[in-house]
Design a protein that fits this description.
By secondary structure, the chain is an alpha+beta fold. The chain folds into three domains: about 110 residues, no CATH class; about 120 residues, Band 7 domain (Tetrahydropterin Synthase, Chain A), CATH 3.30.479; about 45 residues, no CATH class. Strands 6, 9, 10 and 11 form a four-stranded antiparallel β-sheet that branches. The longest helix has about 70 residues. The termini are far apart. The N terminus is likely disordered.
Length: about 375
C-alpha cells in the first residue's frame, strides 16, 4: 500500500512529476492526449483484478476515474466572439484566444469568457426609453449636456459613445466600473473640445471634427488607465442652444442669415457691375487710342501730301497753281447750281439746259 501511495504521490497522469508554479503568469500548455491515455492505462492495470493489491481495488479505481474526469474538465472552448481569461485562485494569469484550450481544473483555475465583439453604447446628455424605464420618449440630463463653449456661450449637446472590449484581462481587472469610466472619460473629452470651439462651428459644420477629436482624447485616456477598451465611434445626436434661449438664438441666426444673403447679393451686384464698367472703360480707351492713331495717320498723310505738292510747286509754280485752283473750285462748286458766262465769245450768256434738275423732277 505504501508502494501504491508513493506511486500516486510522485507520478502524475501526464507521465512526469508535477511542475512547480513559478508565479510568472505564463499559460500552461495542454498535455499530449496520447501520453495521458497511455499513462492512465498503466495506472488502471495496476489496480485491476489480478494485480498485487487486495480488496481496496474498487475504491482506488473509482478515485482514478474521478481524477481522470477532474483532469479532463480543464478543457474549455473559447468562441470566436470571446476571449478566455484564466484565473488561478482568483488571480489573473493570462488571456487565451478563440479555440480549444486547457487550464488546471476547478478550484485551482477557472475561466471567464466575456464577449469582445459586442458593440456597447453609452448615451451622454440624455437617456433613451430603455435606459429611463419609460415606454417612449427621451429623457434629457442637463447636468451632462450643458457645456460652455470657447466664445462664452452655452450649448446643449447630446452624444453616444460606442465601444468594444479590446483586452478582456485588462477590462475585467484594471477598472472597477467600465461603463461609468467610459462615460466619465468621454464627457471630460467632450467638455475639453467644446471649451476650445465656437458655438457657430459646433452647431454647423464642425460636428464631425468634434466627434473625431473626442474619440481620440477618450481613447488616449482609457489607454493610460489600461482599461482594455476600444472606442469605435462618437456620434453627436443633438447640438442646440439651451431651451430657455433657443427662440432668441434662432432670431439671431435668422438675422445672420439675412446679413449673409444681403452680403452675397451685394457681392453679386458688384461682380456684375464692376466687370462691365471695366469693359466699358477699356472700350473707351481702345476707341480713343484708335482715334488718336487715325488722326495722327491722317495728319501725317496730309503733311506728306503737302510736302509732295510743295516739291512740285517749286519745280513748276504756274502749272501747280492752276491745278490747285481748278481742284479747289471743283470741290467748292460740285454741289451748287452754276451758270457759265464766256467773256471772250461776246454773246454774253451761254444757253444752259438744266438736265440735273429735270432728272430730279422726273424722279420725284
Amino acid at each position: 500500500m505504501n508502494n501504491k501511495g508513493s506511486i500516486l504521490k510522485n507520478q502524475s497522469p501526464w507521465g512526469s512529476g508535477p511542475s512547480q508554479g513559478n508565479g510568472s503568469g505564463s499559460r500552461r500548455e495542454p498535455p499530449n492526449i496520447d501520453d495521458v491515455v497511455s499513462n492512465l492505462q498503466k495506472l488502471i492495470k495496476k489496480f485491476l483484478p489480478g494485480g498485487k493489491t487486495g480488496g481496496s481495488k474498487p475504491i482506488i479505481l473509482g478515485l482514478v476515474i474521478l481524477a481522470v474526469i477532474w483532469v479532463l474538465s480543464g478543457l474549455y472552448r473559447v468562441l470566436p466572439d470571446e476571449q478566455g481569461v484564466v484565473l488561478r485562485f482568483g488571480k489573473y494569469i493570462n488571456t487565451t484566444q478563440p479555440g480549444l484550450n486547457y487550464h488546471f481544473p476547478f478550484p485551482i483555475e477557472r475561466v471567464l469568457k466575456p464577449k469582445v465583439t459586442k458593440v456597447n453604447r453609452i448615451d451622454v446628455g440624455f437617456r433613451g426609453a430603455s435606459d429611463s424605464g419609460r415606454s417612449s420618449g427621451i429623457g434629457e440630463v442637463p447636468e451632462e449636456s450643458l457645456m460652455l463653449t470657447g466664445d462664452e456661450n452655452i450649448v446643449d449637446i447630446n452624444y453616444s459613445v460606442f465601444w468594444v472590449i479590446k483586452d478582456a484581462g485588462k477590462f475585467l481587472f484594471n477598472i472597477q466600473s467600465p461603463v461609468e469610466t467610459v462615460k466619465a472619460t468621454s464627457e471630460t473629452a467632450m467638455r475639453e473640445v467644446i471649451a476650445k470651439s465656437e458655438i457657430q462651428s459646433i452647431l454647423t459644420e464642425g460636428r464631425s471634427n468634434i466627434e473625431i477629436e473626442v474619440q481620440e482624447i477618450t481613447q488616449n485616456i482609457l489607454d493610460e488607465y489600461g482599461s482594455g477598451i476600444q472606442i469605435t465611434q462618437v456620434q453627436t445626436q443633438k447640438a442646440d442652444p439651451p431651451s430657455q434661449v433657443i427662440d432668441a438664438f434662432r432670431d439671431v441666426q435668422a438675422a445672420r442669415a439675412d446679413k449673409e444673403r444681403s452680403k452675397n447679393e451685394a457681392e453679386a451686384y458688384a461682380n456684375d457691375v464692376i466687370p462691365r464698367a471695366r469693359g466699358d472703360a477699356e472700350k473707351i480707351l481702345q476707341e480713343a487710342e484708335a482715334y488718336k492713331k487715325e488722326v495722327v495717320a491722317t495728319a501725317e498723310g496730309e503733311a506728306s501730301r503737302f510736302l509732295a505738292i510743295y516739291d512740285e510747286y517749286k519745280n513748276a509754280k504756274q502749272v501747280t497753281q492752276e491745278r490747285m485752283f481748278l481742284e479747289t473750285m471743283e470741290k467748292v462748286l460740285a454741289d451748287i447750281d452754276k451758270v457759265i458766262i464766256d467773256k471772250e465769245s461776246g454773246s454774253g450768256v451761254v444757253p444752259y439746259l438744266p438736265l440735273p434738275e429735270i432728272k430730279k423732277k422726273s424722279g420725284s
